[in-house]
Design brief:
Blueprint (H helix, E strand, L loop, with lengths): L1 H27 L9 E10 L2 E2 L5 E2 H4 L5 H15 L4 E11 L13 H10 L11 H7 L2 H7 L4 E6 L8 E4 L21 E7 L4 H19 L9 H5 L33 E3 L15 E3 L9 H10 L3 E6 L2 E4 L1 H5 L6
Parallel strand pairs: 1-4, 1-5, 5-7
Antiparallel strand pairs: 2-3, 6-7, 8-9, 10-11
Helix pairs in contact: 3-7, 7-9
Length: 334
Amino acid sequence: MFKKVFDKVVGEVQEAADELLDQIRADDEPVGQKPAAVQRKVLSICFDPAVPSQQGKPLSTVLGWNDVHSLMGKYIADLKECSYGYANYEVVEHIDVDGMPTKADGFTYEPNDFLRHWKARDGFHQPDLVDYHKILRDYDVIAQVNSGRIDEVWLWGFPYAGYYESIMAGPGAFWCNAPALKETGQAQRRFIIMGYNYQRGVGEMLENLGHRAESIMRRVFRNKRGDANLWERFARYDQTHPGKAEVGIMHFAPNSVRDYDWGNKTPVSSSCDDWLNFPNLTGARRTVDCQEWGNGDTRLHHLWWSRRLPHVTGASGGISHNWWRYIIDPNEVP
């Protein structure tokens, strides 16, 4: 009995607080308009060592992998486009490192050894996790975050470099597709370290960002229940909610039946396009299949998904109608 009363009181207090926040935000901006663009400054660090047994050529060249600068340019353009001009990233410094990142247990690959392991697809060092704190020290990352010179870090590497796809650091850091990075409280704000693999393409970079978005939006809506949890509604797909699919999640399009099943031709009912009109959701549905999101193309699905994230001014329930606000800047997450 006491718990029911307590929960009711807490709910009423939360509702009143949300209404107050909505009013404050309503005074600041009209509802349904295009929000002002934001700039995000990036420190980019690429570990691409020379391989002695291959005439000192960089590892990425030896294995025919992608050019980091080309990947960055396309990725930055994609983020600006799919956020409707909101997210504008600038790489303020790019550092090419002729070396391998050190693992958390102190191990560091020799380039010749790594190449041998790669060709054999065997013998990789475990545990794999990189020493994030060494990178933070070596490149004076926290001081740069505190001074405002940078807002986040992009790490580039090879398979088994030991990076998470994203990890959050700083005061009040929370799960961001990885456990919060501990012992970073000297930072004056939260920041995210992205981990990218130059063996892969822009589609996989967008996937890293999508998982970051999933983690952050779960956090934003953590106190919402039922229909008030719009993130859970956005994330529905037919396998988990038969006949009630909406946009889905990174690994599951509206009709997917397994991870990465973006080429599924099975038609299902979905309200995916309704989210393009947020916050004016009508529940309108239509039949869709993989032709809508690129017939299995990783990048095209992720762009399709990202364009449907709410992206306008205003707020409801104490939460902004512009979800990119939280995804791009974790300090906006309460």
